[in-house]
Amino acid sequence: MGKTMITDFDRALARVCECCPVCRTARKDPDGLANRFVKGVEEGVCPFCRAYGRVHGRKAHEKSP
């Protein structure tokens, strides 16, 4: 399985996720309601969360290192 190339468009979409108040709250509070919500929508619904995963190598709801 080949590694997909990360484009400038992916980076722009990921930046929206980085600034999103719901996703930021989910990353800060792993036991909160926002975290459960983001887990439910990140793969199937939100293109920003999917791009965040491609660019950063972790899910949008996971805490930053």
Protein architecture, described:
The chain has helices at residues 8-19, 21-28, 33-41, 47-56. With 65 residues, the protein is mainly alpha-helical. The chain has one domain. Helix 1 (8-19) crosses helix 4 (47-56). The protein is elongated, with a radius of gyration of 11 Å. It starts with 7 loop residues before the first helix and ends in a 9-residue tail after the last helix.
Q: Which features characterize this protein?
A:
mainly alpha; 65 residues; 4 helices
Quick gist of this model?
This protein is mainly α and 65 residues long. It has helices at residues 8-19, 21-28, 33-41, 47-56. The relative contact order is 0.22.
Helix content: 55-70%
End-to-end Cα distance, whole Å, is: 27 Å
Count of DSSP H/I helices: 4
Query: H/E series, N to C?
Result: HHHH
Radius of gyration: 11 Å
Low-confidence stretches: none
